[in-house]
Amino acid sequence: MKTIQAKFYYLLFVAVFLMSFLSITHNNQTVFATSQIPFQLQAIHPDNQLNANDYDDLLITPNTSQDLSFVVQNSDNSARTFVVEANNATTSDGIAVTYDEHERNNLLSPMFSDLIANRKQKITVPANTSQTVTFNLKYPSQQFDGVILGGITVYLDDSDTQNKQSDNGSFAITNRFTYSNAVQLRTSKEITAVPKLIANKAEMTTSNAYPYVKVNLSNSARAIIKQMSTENTIQDSSGKIVESYKTTNGQVAPNSDFNLAIPLTNGALPAGKYHAIGTATSGNQSWTWNQEFEVTNDNSKSVDHESIIKPKVNYWLYLSLLLLLLIIVLIIVIIFLIIKNRKKEDKNNEKIN
N- to C-terminal Cα distance for the chain? Predict the structure, then answer.
């Protein structure tokens, strides 16, 4: 009987150990890096500057023209060639205002780039000195509600970067660092325009080898959306939530469209119909959307092929079920041994009697 009890406690210990094994977890750590830009851009504010900001915030008169000047500072120990260009304010997929594009969209006219003829200039600045560059703006013939937002952006000329690499006898793939200064134009001190955020379409795609559902949103008003937060879900045709995602502190440029990228943490979606449902809030304003989209077999296979994230196989579930099955088998064996031992003892007792 003692032998059976010893086996029982041993098997029980093994079962408890296997159960505790299921509680193991792992932590991940993310490392960030920073880079220094050896140049900068500073606005020379004209008399019609409204506020004491670093950027130009100008009260303009319709049907007039004006020169805007900016100082490019080269802090490098050698002369550098820079490209200085006037671009429209756009909204990146990270929901931030950027000033690195001049292409027009199909929203409101005119845009900032429409007002400037010499929108792209190239200058060479000696080492550790500065140089002024000037743009001529021709303002719209009529007043407008809200603001026209653009920016002056400076970056190293590609040929200058290539020459520097050749001088060093090396070749490298480098990022383009830019420095921008916003220019905000308005015909009235009071801004009464109200943002209008709507969803245009949704689709599943990849970006940098990661799968996303991208919801294209547009702000068709001449008003900036500040400190915007969003809550998003992707639901299948049965209403089951297959993905959820939140964003905070977003900034949306006036008269711009962008893609709100919802990461698919479990890989590409299977073929079927889905709904991208979202809510955006900024202060006391809010916007909602429910955009239907379809994932075809080709779309699902293509995104899965291009993505480094594959549909998850729940190995922990399978391992848990396997260990649970093993524990049940152990318990059954223990019970069987106990019953067998009792029957043996009963037979021995009968023989003695």
Answer: 20
Other beta carbons within 10 Å of 81:
16
CB atoms within 10 A of CB 185: 23
Q: Which of 264, 283, 138 is nearest to 202 (CA)?
A: 264
Residue 205 belongs to some domain of the structure: yes
Tokens 């509600």 correspond to 145
Is residue 340 in a domain? yes
Q: How far apart are CA 320 and CA 310, in angstroms?
A: 22
Amino acid at 231: E
Together in a domain, 56 and 124:
yes
What lies within 8 Å, CB to CB, of 17 at 6+ separation is none
In single-letter form, the type of residue at position 329 comes to V
- Best CA proximity match to 225, nearest among 185, 186, 253, 187: 253
* Cβ-Cβ contacts under 8 Å for 335 (sequence gap 6 or more): none
301, 319: one domain: no
Q: Which class for 302: exposed (0-12), middle (13-18), buried (19 or more C-beta within 10 A)? A: middle
Q: What is the DSSP string of 222-263?
A: S--EEEEEEEEEEEETTS-EEEEEEEEEEEE-TTEEEEEEEE
pLDDT top residue among 21 and 283 = 283
Phi, psi of 196 (to 5 degrees): -130, 100
Where are the extended beta strands (E) located within the chain?
39-44, 56-59, 65-74, 80-91, 97-101, 120-125, 129-138, 148-156, 178-186, 197-207, 210-219, 225-236, 241-252, 256-263, 272-282, 285-295
Give the pLDDT band (50/70/90) at residue 85. very high
Cβ contact 263:211 at 8 Å: yes
Predicted confidence (pLDDT) at residue 137 exceeds the cutoff of 80: yes
Q: Is the confidence at residue 45, as pLDDT, over 70?
A: yes
| Domain range enclosing 276 | 197-306
Q: Cα–Cα distance between 264 and 347 in angstroms, integer?
A: 66
Which tokens in the block code for residue 95?
């929901």
Same structural domain, 98 and 174: yes
